[in-house]
# Entry
Amino acid sequence: MKPSSPRPTMFRPIFGAALLMAAILCLCPGCDNKQGVVIGEKPPSSPGSDLRGEPVDIGRFKGKVVVLYFWANTCCSDRVKLLEPFYRRVRDKGLAILAVNVGSPAKLVESFAKDNGLTFTLLTDEHTTTSEQYGVFGFPTVFILDGNGIVRQKVLGEISAEQLQKLVERQFDMQKEVQAQFEKSRPR
# Structure
C-alpha cells in the first residue's frame, strides 16, 4: 500500500479560501462596479430634494457654474457656513451652490440654514440614494459643473473657500473664452 501524498490536503485550505473569496466578490451587494459621476459627463439630473421634499432638477441652473457640495453634519457643518460669504461675492457672476446634506432630515437642515443665514440652495439626501448615484463615499465631496451642466472638477475632502473660488473663477474664465470664440466664428 502506498502512503497518501500530503499535497492534496495542503491545497484544500488554499482552494477553499479562493472559492470563498470568489463567492463573496460575486454575491456581495454593492460590489458591482459603480463609478458614480465622471468628469466630462453630465451628472444625474436631480442631486437631491429641496427642504420641502421636492426634487431639484439640475437643468434649471443651465448657464451657471454650479458647485455641488456633498456634506454631512458630523464633519462639515463649519465648512458649509464658510461657503456663504463666497457665494454672496460671486453669485451675481452666475454661480449656484447646491449644498447636499447626506443623512439628515430636511427639518434639521432647514434649521441649520436659518441659524446660519445661508442663502444658497440646500438639498437633502436623507437616505443616501443620491450620494450613492454620484459615487460620494466621503465628506465633503465637491463637484463643479460648467454652464452646460458638465462635471469639470471633482474634489474629495476639505477645500477652503479660497481654493473653491479659484476653481470656480477658472470655470467663469473658460466660459468667457468659449463665448468669445463662438462670437468670433459666427458669420455676420
About this structure: The two ends are 99 Å apart (CA to CA).
